[in-house]
């Protein structure tokens, strides 16, 4: 069988061109803002830029109901490297998928796989902003592997190897590169399920009979993926959503998901700290925020974020001297030069000054 003779399909090059122009513009935009264009091009475009461009922002989807982002997110990529990997994979898989199920169905597989994968990844809380076409690529990979009549055995083996390597990389990458990008393994698995459903459905409608062991295999993968999505939603989604809402400056909305996150894991100091900080920003339930921040700080006394939260809560409670001391310690320990700590210091120092002026006025005969 000859694959890929003649010109490439217009759809394939259209996707390549459109996504390439988009990632180039966003990387330029991010680089011009951060003065670090090389990092934006190679590794990661800022999440704020991706969200503004139509990425699957967890808050915009689940709070603001902007469901259209599930589709537009598939056209975006986190950087040049991310785009290159996806486009090279698309060009490698596309001719085999077209040979297996035709071009029209391959388009349907790619689009539906991308949308479902983005939804699953967002619901599982895998990231504050999800972008990329890899879910659709995993759907195409499932077609290539399962449609045995149109693909040779060696190609199927190579695709399976690539899928396994990608999934393993998704698990290992956070361990070796804590600040790096994340591979949405849950979304990838969801995309694979979509591709498998397409193939099994087409074969069953054509033969009128049940498939072989692939049915049981895909049912197992689908069940496992659903279990992971639901479990991750319970353990990660609320935390991801709440923290992202805080970054967006929406503390009143963030309190709900952060409270849910804390109740699920009250022993986790980072969740207690996040809830305390949200409450401090709203100015509500400050006594509760004080207890939460104290508990978090007791577990990690040298954590600059916890010191900042504790100091800010104390300032909001009127204990400005104690708050200033902790905020000063937070600034000393902070390695990232977080401007928020400096803002809290200035605000708390301003409260001290106001108190001193008020005291002086009250003492004037």
Describe the protein's architecture and organization.
- By secondary structure, the protein is mainly α.
- It has helices spanning 10-34, 37-42, 47-53, 58-62, 69-72, 80-101, 103-123, 134-146, 153-176, 185-207, 214-247, 251-264, 269-282, 286-299, 304-317, 320-333, 339-363; strands spanning 56-57, 129-130.
- The protein has a two-stranded antiparallel sheet.
- The N and C termini lie far apart (101 Å).
Characteristic terms for this protein:
single chain; 365 residues; mainly alpha; two-stranded antiparallel sheet; 2 strands; 1% strand; elongated
Which descriptor suits the 3D outline?
A: elongated
Helix content: over 70%
Strand order of the largest sheet: 1-2
Tally of helical runs = 17
Overall number of strands: 2
The portion of residues forming beta strands comes to under 5%
Give me the Rg, rounded: 25 Å
Unreliable stretches (pLDDT < 50, length at least 5) are 1-7, 356-365
What's the SSE pattern? Answer: HHHEHHHHEHHHHHHHHHH
> Mind summarizing the main beta sheet?
2 strands, antiparallel
Structural class: mainly alpha
List the helices and strands and how they pair.
Layout: H1 10-34, H2 37-42, H3 47-53, E1 56-57, H4 58-62, H5 69-72, H6 80-101, H7 103-123, E2 129-130, H8 134-146, H9 153-176, H10 185-207, H11 214-247, H12 251-264, H13 269-282, H14 286-299, H15 304-317, H16 320-333, H17 339-363
Antiparallel strand pairs: 1-2
Task: Describe the structure in brief.
The protein is mainly alpha-helical and 365 residues long.
């Amino acid at each position: 069988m000859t694959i890929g003779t003649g010109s490439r399909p217009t759809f394939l090059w259209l996707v390549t061109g459109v996504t390439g122009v988009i990632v180039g513009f966003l990387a330029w935009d991010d680089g011009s803002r951060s003065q670090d264009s090389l990092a934006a091009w190679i590794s990661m475009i800022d999440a704020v830029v991706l969200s503004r461009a139509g990425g699957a922002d967890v808050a915009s989807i689940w709070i603001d109901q902007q469901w259209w982002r599930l589709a537009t997110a598939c056209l975006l990529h986190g950087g040049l490297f991310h785009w290159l990997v996806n486009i090279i994979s698309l060009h490698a898989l596309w001719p085999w998928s077209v040979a297996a199920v035709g071009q029209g169905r391959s388009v349907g597989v790619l689009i539906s796989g991308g949308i479902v994968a983005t939804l699953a990844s967002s619901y599982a809380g895998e990231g504050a902003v999800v972008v990329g076409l890899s879910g659709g690529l995993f759907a195409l990979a499932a077609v290539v592997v399962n449609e045995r009549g149109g693909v040779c055995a060696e190609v199927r083996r190579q695709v399976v190897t690539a899928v396994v390597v990608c999934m393993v990389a998704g698990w290992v990458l956070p361990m070796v590169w804590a600040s790096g990008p994340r591979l949405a393994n849950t979304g990838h698995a969801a995309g694979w399920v979509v591709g498998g459903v397409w193939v099994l459905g087409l074969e069953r409608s054509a033969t009128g009979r049940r498939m072989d062991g692939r049915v049981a295999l895909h049912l197992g993968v689908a069940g496992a993926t659903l279990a992971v999505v639901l479990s991750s939603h319970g353990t990660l989604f609320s935390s991801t959503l709440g923290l992202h809402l805080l970054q967006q400056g929406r503390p009143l909305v963030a309190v709900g998901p952060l409270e849910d996150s804390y109740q699920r894991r009250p022993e986790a100091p980072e969740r207690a700290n996040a809830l305390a900080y949200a409450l401090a920003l709203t100015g509500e339930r400050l006594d509760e925020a004080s207890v939460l921040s104290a508990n978090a700080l007791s577990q990690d006394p040298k954590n600059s974020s916890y010191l900042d939260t504790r100091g800010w809560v104390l300032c909001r409670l009127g204990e400005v001297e104690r708050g200033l001391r902790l905020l000063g310690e937070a600034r000393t320990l902070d390695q990232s030069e977080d401007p928020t700590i400096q803002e809290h210091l200035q605000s708390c120092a301003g409260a001290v000054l106001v108190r001193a002026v008020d005291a002086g006025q009250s003492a004037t005969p």
